[in-house]
Amino acid sequence: MPEIKRPLSPHVSVYSWQVSNTLSILHRATGVFLFAGALVLTAWIVSAALGQSAYDSVLNLLRGPLGLVLLLGLSAAFFYHLGNGIRHLVWDAGYGFDKHVARMSGWFTFLAAIAFTIAFWLGVTS
Amino acid sequence: MSLQSPLGKFLGLGSAKEGTEHWWSQRVTAVALIPLTLWFVVALLGMDSFEHAAVAAWLGQPVNAVLMILVLMVVLHHSQLGIQVVIEDYVHSGGLKVSMLLGSKFLHVAAGVAGIYSIIILSISALAGLGTGTGQ
User: Fold this and answer.
1) What part of A 54-83 touches B (C-beta under 8 Å)?
2) Domain count along chain B
3) Is residue B55 assigned to a domain?
4) Per residue in B75-129, pLDDT tens?
5) Which of residues 96 through 115 in chain A touch B, CB cutoff 8 A?
6) Residue B28: which domain range?
7) What is the Cα–Cα distance from A51 to A53, expressed in whole angstroms?
8) Which of A24, A32, A35 to mutate to test the interface with B (most CBs of B within 10 A)?
9) What pLDDT, in 10s, does the model give residues B28-52?
10) How far is B84 from chain A (nearest CA, A)?
11) Which residues lie below 8 Å from residue A47, measured CB to CB, with a gap of 6+?
12) Domain CATH code at residue B29
């Protein structure tokens, strides 16, 4: 039987890009990235129990340039995933579905994540 | 006429034999993670030092140990549920999909057990006055 080419909705190539779908994709992407964060957290704890030398090698990796970029990315991903997760929970409760409300909460979540990330690093380095 | 039994109709689960458990677990862990992760962020901000002795002592402190075990357990559970959905959505080849699902689950459980065991070790070391962990 020949494959019937039915139109799919929303078809990615004709889908009008907007805040809502960008943030939705970002939620999933940050979630996957935070899986790596969970493993970093585990490595940090396990190395502390293993002893000084194991802990120092983990700490030196995290304090190196690549480690700091990773931690910066993880913190930003965390604050975004947390904020947008709360946004999702509010939706699950049945609120905030109006188009303008959803857009506004999206922008608010995104900007709050940036603000929290900056505030966290100012706090942790001070 | 429906061929479903009255019990089947009441449970409403169809042939999958399950309903909203995965979805619900993801929400329950999400709600739990709001206070847990915020506590961890505040704790990180309050750390005087990230050197080994300070961190090992901090992890061995009873309240921190219990909360860190909770953080780790719930984070890894929530992560496992999420990664599972992502794999199911994007990996369609049967063998690869099953291997990745199993690999992810094993990795999450192993990380959780290793992390919790480590926190217990650090707690016992702190209680016994052994100082900074074992293994040296």
Assistant:
1) 54-56, 59, 78, 82
2) 1
3) yes
4) 999 999 999 999 999 999 989 999 999 999 999 999 999 999 999 999 999 988 7
5) none
6) 22-127
7) 6
8) A35
9) 999 999 999 999 999 999 998 999 9
10) 10
11) A54, A55, A57, A58, A59
12) 1.20.1300.10
